[in-house]
Each structure stands twice: as C-alpha cells, then as structure tokens.
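To illustrate the input format used throughout this study, we show a single complete record. The first block contains the structure-token representation of the backbone; no residue identities are included at this stage. The design step must infer an amino acid for every position from geometry alone.
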C-alpha cells in the first residue's frame, strides 16, 4: 500500500495501514555479499554488505553457529559490516533488515573461511604439471599431520573438496582432473582442515602451475610421424648396408679373377721357354758340321 494513501488513512484513524506497509516491505529477503571474498587469511578484514529496500532503519549481521550478531543503523554504514578474521569469526553468516518494528526474513547464507590456522600441506601433480590435452592428471594434497578433508583452489577460487586417506600420521587427498582441457590450465593450491564443513583451514600449499603442452590428437599424430620416420630411416639403413655388401662382393670377385689370371700366366711361361730352347740333337749336329768345315780348310 502506498505511503501517501496510508498517511491519509491514518489521518482518518486507520493507522494500521502503516504496519501493514512495513510488513509488506519486510517480506522481501535482503541480499548479502562479501568483499574481497569468502576465503580470507587470518588477521585480514572482510566486508559484508547487507542490501535492503528503501525505508530500512537497521541492519543485522548474524553468525549462525555461535548465534552472534551485530546491529548497524542504516544511516551510519548503509549495511556495510567489517569483520576482522580470526578462528572465532569463521562460519556461516546471514543478515536481516528492520523496517519500523518488523524484521525481514534472513538473507542468503555465506560461509566465511579463515585460513592460516594450521601448517600448509604440499601439492604435487601426477604425472607432472606439463600435460597433454585430453589426458588425466592427479593433483595430490599431502600433509604430515592428520586431517579429515582437503580443498582445492584454482586461481584463488575453490573448485573442489575431498576426503583424506590416512598414511600413518599424515593424510593424503587426490583430486582427479579427467580429460584435461584448456579451461583447466592455471595455478592450483590446496588446504587441509578438520570436518567436512569446517571453515577453519590451514595455510595454502605452494602453488602448482598446470600447463598444456599439446592436444592429444597432436601428440598421437606426432607419435605416428615419429614411427613413420623411424621406419623410413630403418629402410634407408638397410638399403645402404645391402649396397655395401654388393660392392664388397664385387671387389672380392674382381680380386679373385685377377688372381686366377696371374696364376694361369705363371703356369704358361715355363712351357713357352722350353719350346724356344733348341733340342740337344740339333746342337750336336751343328757342332759336327762346324768341325768338318774346319778340317776341310786345313
């Protein structure tokens, strides 16, 4: 009901409309936001803003687990609450606004997580931080202390939770990234904490930068190309070896032919020398002839 109409009716003695108007406005739920975020290191402030309709006189910020609340007049802070983070400030928050004497319904709930309350875990990538698109990679969050759960954050935003496996005094949580794509590249950290819904976390681990080196199809094509190249090189080596063997056999055949030829010549030379030498009977006859000629001359 419009305020002008309510004022007219109140002047006529029907002031109940003012309360009805306040109740109608208070039926709208406020909105609650947090800056700079909801995962805040211990000791740093966080700002909660509760947004209500015009006419709001009072805002209330409430921590649900401990039933603690803070009231702030709308004229002073316009629904902006500043909270110093500490172990006792971690938890779920909602807000309300008040118009006249009527409180609104609670807003949406935000969980404030305070980090830096325990020693940091270690984070590693298996098989490594440089992976091929389309393949699987496991991010392992490990700590030497006993924790029941772990959280995984990418570029400052929480992207997953997991239960811990206990290895002796320590604990380990594996986060599987299946069929890694370009959207999953980034800087990852992990946190350890007690209880599935706890808002009190450890300090963050050292970052792990996940990078894609190539796509799975490119890797497969490269493997096939490498196999084809190896096959071609192998064939070329075989051809060269076969050529060398043929050349060697040719050299051996030529050497054998020349050796046989020299051997035949050596066998033929004694026969020729024996044929060119005069027979002994001819030599005797010639000597007898020469002797006769000399006797005649005398």
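Output of the design step:
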């Amino acid at each position: 009901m419009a305020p002008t109409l309510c004022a007219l009716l109140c002047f006529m003695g029907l002031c109940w409309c003012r309360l009805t108007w306040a109740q109608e406005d208070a039926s709208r739920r406020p909105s609650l936001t947090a800056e700079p975020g909801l995962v805040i290191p211990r000791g740093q402030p966080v700002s909660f803003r509760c947004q209500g309709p015009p006419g709001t006189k009072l805002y209330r910020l409430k921590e649900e687990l401990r039933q603690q609340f803070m009231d702030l007049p709308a004229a002073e802070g316009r629904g902006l609450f500043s909270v110093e983070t500490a172990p006792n400030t971690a938890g779920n928050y909602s807000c309300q606004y008040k118009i006249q004497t009527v409180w609104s319904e609670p807003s949406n709930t935000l969980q404030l997580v305070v980090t830096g309350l325990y020693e940091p875990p270690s984070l590693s990538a298996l098989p490594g931080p440089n992976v091929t698109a389309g393949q699987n990679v496991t991010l392992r969050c490990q700590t030497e202390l006993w924790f029941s759960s772990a959280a995984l954050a990418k570029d400052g935003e929480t992207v997953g939770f997991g239960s811990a496996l206990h290895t002796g005094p320590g604990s380990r949580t594996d986060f599987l990234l299946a069929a890694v794509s370009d959207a999953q590249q980034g800087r990852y950290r992990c946190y350890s904490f007690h209880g599935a819904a706890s808002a009190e976390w450890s300090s963050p681990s050292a970052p792990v930068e996940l990078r894609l080196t190539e796509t799975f199809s490119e890797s497969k094509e490269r493997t096939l190309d490498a196999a084809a190249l190896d096959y071609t090189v192998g064939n070329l080596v075989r051809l060269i070896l076969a050529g060398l063997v043929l050349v060697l056999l040719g050299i051996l055949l030529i050497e054998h032919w020349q050796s046989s030829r020299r051997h035949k010549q050596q066998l033929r030379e004694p026969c020729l020398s024996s044929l060119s030498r005069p027979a002994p009977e001819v030599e005797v006859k010639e000597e007898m002839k020469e002797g006769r000629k000399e006797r005649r001359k005398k």
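Structural context for interpreting the output: The chain has a mean pLDDT of 83. Residues 122-215 form a domain with the Immunoglobulin-like fold (CATH 2.60.40.10).
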